[in-house]
Amino acid sequence: MPKQECRWGILGTAGIARKNWKAIKLSGNACVTAVASRSVESAQRFIDECSSQVPPTTTPEALGSYEDLLSRDDVDAVYIPLPTALRFEWVLKAAEAGKHVMGEKPAATNSTQVAEMLEVCKENNVQYMDGVMFMHSARLPLIRSVLDDPNQLGKVRRLTSQFSFAGDEEFCRSNIRTHSELEPHGCLGDLGWYCSRMFMWILRGEMPLEVRARVLTPLQGQGSPDSVPGEFTAELTFADGVTACFYNSFITENQQYVCASGDKGWMRLDDFVLPYHGAELAINVAQDRFEVDNCEFHMEQHHRRLAVREYDSNQPGSQEVRLFQKFSDLVNKGELDPTWPEWTLKTQKVLDACFQSSKQDGAVVKIT
Question: In a 3-state reduction of DSSP, which class is residue 241?
Fold first, then answer.
C-alpha cells in the first residue's frame, strides 16, 4: 500500500516558500500539487526554479489565481506566505474551502483577526499552525530538560533576546517589510514574533502581564503611506517577578540569541531561529563562580556545551522538515491539535500589546 501523503498547495511565491518546497519534499509524508501566484507565468517560474534544485516526484500545476488553487480536489492543505495584510482574507477562504492552513507570521494584522481566523478554522474542522520552525526542533526537549532541572538555572528571573539583520539601502527602500500597508509591524512582526514565542515557550505558555515598548528607528519604504518599526525594543513583565526584554532591528547586523538567567546559572542559544550551519544544534549552560580569598579575587568560568544531532537546514530531520512532517501527519490521520492555534493567538496578543505601547510613547499596556 502506498504511503499516504498530505497534498499541499502553495498560495504565493515568497522567498521563504522555496525553503519550504524542499522541506515538503523531504518530509516523507507530503507533496506539492499546485502553486498559485498572481499570474500563471509567475507560478510556473517558481516551480521551474525550485524543481531545478529540488526535483518533485510529480510536477505541481501552476495557477494564476488563489481561488483556483482553493477549488482543487487534490489540495488538502495550503501554505500561505502572503504579506501579513493579506493573510486574514486568504486564511478565511482556505478554511471555508475545507483546506488545512499553515500561515506565515505575523498571523494577521491584529489578534481580533486571528481569533476570527481560528474560529473559522475550527468551524470547518481544519488545522491551523503558524510557520515557526524552531517549535519543532529536536533541541527543544534538551532546553526543557535544563530548565526543569533545579540544579542548572534554578528559578528563572530574566529572559533576553535579540533578533536582527542589517538590510541594505534597497531593502529599506523597496522591501515589503518596510511598507505599512503590507507589513505594518515592520521588524516587530518579522522578528519579534520569534522572541515573544520563545519567551512564552520557556515559561510553558505563560503570557506577560504587561509590556512597554518603543520604536527606536522608523523605516518608510517607497510608496508606503506611513513608517514601520525598523528598530524596536520591548520590556515584558510576567508573573512571579520574571521579566524579559527583546530587541529587533532591520539595521543591526545578524544576531539571534536568547538567554535565560536564573538564581543558579544561565543558558544561552546564539542561533535560536536559524541554526548555525552544521550537524548539531547546541546550547550553552553556565554556572560561573566569584571566588574571594583575602586579596585574591577571581571570576571563574564554568560553561558546558550541550548539543543534539540535527542539521541546521535542508536535510531530513531539520526543524523545517519536522514542521511539515508534524502538520502533514495530523492531516493524514484526520486529527486536530488545538495547541498550535493557541500558540498563534497568544503570540499575536503580545505583538499587539507591544505595537500599541510603541504608538503610545512606551506607555504600559496590560494584557488580559
Answer: helix
What architecture does CATH give domain 135-317+347-366?
Answer: 2-Layer Sandwich (3.30)
Q: Which residue in 22, 105, 346, 349 is the catalytic one?
A: 105
Phi, psi of 205 (to 5 degrees): 90, 0
Exposure string of 154-168, with b = 16+ CB inside 10 Å and e = fewer, is: eebeebbbbbbbebe
Q: 90-116: per-residue pLDDT in tens?
A: 999 999 999 999 999 999 999 999 999
pLDDT digits (tens, 9 = 90+) for 266-306: 999 999 999 999 999 999 999 999 999 999 999 999 999 99
**Rounded to an integer, what is the distance from CA 336 to the centroid of its chain?**
20
366 burial class (0-12, 13-18, 19+ CB within 10 angstroms)? exposed
Number of H helices and E strands in the chain, helices first, is 11, 17
> By C-alpha distance, which of 300, 305, 256, 255 is closest to 285?
305
Q: Quick one: cell of 11?
A: 498560495
- The C-alpha cell at 184 is 505594518
**pLDDT value, residue 1:** 45
H or E, element range at 144: helix 139-148
Residue-wise pLDDT for 173-201, tens only, equals: 999 999 999 999 999 999 999 999 999 99
Look-up: residue for cell 499596556? 365
**CATH architecture of the domain with residue range 6-131:** 3-Layer(aba) Sandwich (3.40)
Residue intervals in the chain for CATH 3.40.50.720? 6-131
Q: H/E element holding 352?
A: helix 339-359
105 carries an active-site annotation = yes
For every residue of 184-212, DSSP letters joined together read TTHHIIIIIHHHHHHHHHHTTTPPPSEEE
Which among 135, 141, 95 is positioned nearest to 306, based on CA atoms? 141
pTM flag (> 0.90): yes
If you search the block for the grid coordinates 500539487, which residue do you land on?
33
128-130 and 100-103 as β-strands: parallel, antiparallel, unpaired?
Answer: parallel
Contact 47, 36 (CB under 8 A): no
Range list for CATH 3.30.360.10 in the chain: 135-317+347-366
DSSP state of 364: -
